[in-house]
Write a structure and sequence with these properties.
The structure is a homodimer. Chain A is of the alpha+beta class. The first copy, chain A, has 2 domains: about 250 residues, Butyryl-CoA Dehydrogenase, subunit A, domain 2 (Beta Barrel); about 290 residues, Up-down Bundle (Butyryl-CoA Dehydrogenase, subunit A, domain 3), CATH 1.20.140.10. In chain A, the strands form 3 sheets. A 5-stranded mixed barrel of chain A has the order 4-5-12-7-6. In chain A, strands 1-2 form a two-stranded antiparallel sheet. In chain A, a hairpin with a 2-residue loop joins strand 1 and strand 2. In chain A, helix 10 runs antiparallel to helix 11. Chain A is globular, with a radius of gyration of 25 Å. Chains A and B meet through helix 11, helix 12, helix 13, helix 14 and helix 17 of A and helix 11, helix 12, helix 13, helix 14 and helix 17 of B.
Chain lengths: ~600, ~600
């Protein structure tokens, strides 16, 4: 069994950096303790070892495809979905009364991280089912809940999110799928939805589609969009009846080839019934209340692939002899036996880069998950604060793992040289798989606009202020450790610099020059996410120092020194790149704004 | 026909920035003029439109594979190879007496660029045949020349370079393929070679392998390696006789799936005859005399893919409506019709980034090709100078297109959103194809070591001094144009900064701390190649200004303004990144050097 993650690292982050024990003191989680969570995570790891990882390559080599109106997936998927459900993966974070286990989202993230690292084709199926069930539970009628949710939690029925349409990718305001009101209070749905992950396959008896559509005559734009449950088969007293939802195809893709991406056609025969969730025209709002969680999930998936790629390339580097170390005279001795490639500085650089990205990114994903828990279940008076922290971190939590995770995997592939490009080795699969994560659930461009135009400015900059406060608390803790002071000071300096950057950008918004304000949002994202992950690394450095003093957690000295070393690497090799980015953002040339002349 | 390149850009660079006319004044090229070259390039473009581009997707979707001991390639490949040969693509740059056309290498690069942009699966077949023929012509006996070269130039026989072995990837000093001397002056070859591009297929009657091997008893390391011609079939008076060269397999790859990557086994029955080229033990030197050309070729291929990806994403951005422009109040009007995505600043940024990388990279590839011509055929007294310029630019010319080209293609894919990830669109193919270019002919790590440890220091820094001189000449020309002064000054500042960086790095070499000296060679490569391409952009800016004044070349104002705008973009969005890189190189933490502790 090749390694695809390090359970010690998950434990280090979950229990120590992000203090799971403290989360578990919240009343909602009273029945859980650290030991019971660890038992659950170990069970997920065993399941992933035994069921997910062994079919990872095969799912890519024999991809999902469409034949005779059906989506054909890997034959083992059904068993995997049922076992996932039994392990509590679908309803784990739900209320007891809804059939859930009331696990923290932080733990939910950890379980999915393990599964994603083992086989990123699979967790999307249960993750989307969970997301769809959650929407029904939060906003649906009791009848909808009773009819759909139990079968979804059990994994018998799949759930999906149907947003995208052929003419409207990122632009949800342009969706045209229409809902026609019927006398009985239901709706007839008509329209096309594409890129529907997990949209159909032979291993679930039914599919519960959560469909964004426009009630006939609704206002234009995002304020005229409603949310419907549209099942593939309508449950009736006589059993399941076809609901005129046609599977029109499966998109063939560069990666995640074991995960179906469906084209669905609703109401071709005017017989597709939809059930309104909540109130008319408020569908996008409902959908977006779940969006933080969904976007954390994308970040988690991306960073899980980076973890798997790191461990695969590390294993190769530890086993592959090649070349020789350079002697003091600048030459090499051909009579010496070849060294392992892990001894070459550039290979070590590529390994540390991967480690810095995946561990820092995983810490960020867990940080956001913790804020999600605290915003929902924390002390009443703190929830608003944690909601703002969650809101500002979400676009970064979604984007850093996708963008920097891709760079990490790229370095992992490079370590294998020509073998990295060959199908016999797994790195090329990770390289292809991770590419979608910068597109899922709002592209990097969309996330960057969200960060700069909404999150930074919301509540008059309050979220940013709170985030800076959290960072300063970490800096305080780090300043107590002489070895960390240098890095604490670096982080402090960059927080100050960020304020200067915003001080030069925000006036454009105030002047109504919004396109100018947002032109370099993508650069700001790269800049700010480097800062946020530097903060995560400083937290991890503090944790490592504390554990090395107290001995808590039984980590080896080598392990803790590895954390500290990687923190140093991140501050030395990644944080300085902010210098270039800040200079880019200070440019006053407006080169990317639309001009009269054609420049392309 | 989708666009995959802009012939105006090729003409702008070849004729104006790099002054083809001046190259053609050299005696060797007396029979050619700009018009005849343009006719040839147009013919190559027509051929690429008609034969190469139409089968590009199909070559990927039905990849090369191995069956019953044979390599099966696209059925149209044979015709393509024959037509390529007829167009002068194989022997074009060779001497008349060897069956060539005495075309400049600069023109050879331009022809291959066109073909690579149309279908990067194909030009490697003829390019390697050309490289193998060139080695025989330079160093082989008259008998070898007469026997092999004419059939190679005609495309009837393929040629390969057999360097890599399973146990020795980048480390040629460890190759073990052995040559046993025979009484008749030939050798029996025995060994395994892998990753042999174009190593076997059904469309050539014979293959001429140029094999690096160790004569029995030769010294260890690179000084004991000899070069042999080992044909698949030995030409005899009775025709072609099998030469015990077995095709053991074809590596399946993530990209370039229409281009075979062969595993060859020599002498399994002790009956594989090899013919020594030149003197024993000097094989690696011969091979490396061709290496500048080979590495320019890799750079050319990478940048051609970036060109094709740019044009594909540009076309999409010009046709796809999506979203709305931001109003002065920061909102969008949903009643407005959607705008084309090319009007969004971030899409424009991604397009300019691609344009800046591919045009700057193409200029660099042509610059190095020109130095190659001048080093071989220029005035005698200048050849040494141009050889040094070629030597120092080669690792950058190979690396920038691979590394930044990959980033360019990545941005092209992102412009298409979810469609970019789908097999129905070509971007994902470019994304997969270009990944190998950072590995071919010496990985980025190897190129970076070559640049910093050999090229920067050679002849006491003379090559660097010459390069700085060339850059300063461009700065002088730019200073005459008020609009360019700012960029000229920026380039000048960075040249100075480079000297400071080297001033802090070189003492490590002087002290014998070579591993420390070279630890960040990869960062130096990124830094220095950004500078070198900034120089190319300043040259292009000077050209554009001059042409806009003189009207020469009949370029439209929009075209020339597009060049100037992209130059500004490169200086504004890419050059500042050097600030971060220089800070990284100034670190004194030695984090990537081997330590006693395990950090991974």
């Amino acid at each position: 069994m090749a390694a695809y993650l390090n359970m010690d690292t998950l434990r280090f982050l979950l229990q120590h950096t992000h203090d799971l024990e403290q989360i578990l003191t919240l009343p909602r989680f009273a029945d859980h303790d650290v030991d019971s969570i660890n038992i659950m995570l170990d069970a997920i790891k065993d399941f992933s070892d035994q069921e997910l990882y062994p079919v990872f390559r095969e799912m890519d080599e024999k991809p999902v495809h469409y034949a005779d109106g059906k989506i054909i997936t890997h034959p083992g998927l059904g068993k995997i979905l049922r076992q996932s459900a039994e392990l509590g993966v679908i309803g784990g974070t739900f209320d007891y009364e809804d059939g859930g286990l009331q696990l923290p989202n932080t733990v939910g993230t950890a379980t999915y991280f393990i599964m994603d690292a083992a086989n990123n084709n699979v967790p999307g199926y249960t993750g989307l089912t969970m997301g769809a069930a959650e929407l029904i539970l939060h906003f649906g009628s009791d009848d909808l809940k009773a009819t759909y949710v139990p079968k979804m939690i059990s994994g018998e029925w799949g759930g999906t999110m149907c947003l995208t349409e052929p003419q409207a990718g990122s632009s949800l305001s342009d969706i045209t799928t229409t809902a026609y009101p019927q006398a009985d209070g239901t709706y007839k749905i008509k329209g096309q939805k594409i890129f529907i992950s997990g949209g159909d396959h032979e291993h679930c008896e039914n599919f519960v589609h959560l469909v964004l559509a426009r009630i006939e005559g609704a206002p234009a734009g995002t304020k005229g969009i409603s949310l419907f449950v549209v099942p593939k088969f309508r449950p009736t007293d006589d059993g399941l009846v076809p609901n005129d939802v046609i599977t029109a195809g499966d998109f063939q893709k560069m990666g995640q080839r074991g995960y179906c991406t469906t084209h669905l056609s609703f109401g071709e025969e005017d017989n597709s019934t939809g059930y309104l969730i909540g109130e008319p025209h408020r569908g996008l709002g409902y959908m977006f209340l779940m969006m933080n969680g969904a976007r954390i999930g994308v970040g988690r998936g991306g960073i899980a692939i980076a973890s798997a790629a790191y461990h695969a390339s590390l294993q190769y580097a530890q086993e592959r002899p090649q070349g020789r170390r350079i002697l003091d005279n600048g030459r090499k001795d051909p009579n010496e036996s070849p060294t392992l490639i892990i001894e070459h500085a550039d290979v070590r650089r590529m390994l540390f880069l991967q480690k810095a990205i995946y561990e820092g990114g995983l810490s960020l994903v867990l940080q956001s998950s913790k804020y999600l828990d605290l915003s929902l279940y924390g002390p009443e008076e703190d929830r608003e604060k944690y909601k703002m922290l969650l809101d500002i971190l979400t676009p970064i939590t979604k984007t850093f793992p996708a963008e920097k995770g891709r760079e990490a995997v790229d370095n992992g592939l490079q370590i294998l040289g020509g073998y990295g490009f060959c199908s016999d080795f797994v790195l090329q699969q990770y390289y292809r798989d991770i590419r979608i994560f910068a597109i899922y659930e709002g592209t990097t461009g969309i996330q960057s606009l969200d960060l700069l135009s909404r999150k930074i400015t919301m509540h008059n900059g309050k979220a940013l202020e709170l985030l800076a406060g959290e960072m300063k608390a970490t800096i305080e803790a780090a300043l107590e450790q002489p070895e960390l002071q240098k890095y604490a000071a670096a982080l402090g300096g960059k927080i100050k610099e960020t304020q200067e950057v915003l001080g030069s950008l925000l006036p454009f918004a105030a002047k109504g020059e919004y396109e100018r304000f947002l032109a370099d949002a993508n650069i700001f994202m790269e800049y700010f996410s480097t800062l946020v992950v530097a903060w995560q690394w400083l937290q991890m450095g503090v944790t490592a120092k504390q554990l090395s003093i107290t001995g808590a957690g039984n980590f080896t000295d080598d392990y803790l020194e590895g954390i500290l070393h990687t923190m140093r690497f991140y501050f030395t090799y990644e944080v300085p790149k902010m210098n270039g980015l800040v200079e880019i953002m200070r440019n006053d040339e407006e080169l990317t704004l639309l001009k009269e002349k054609a420049h392309f």
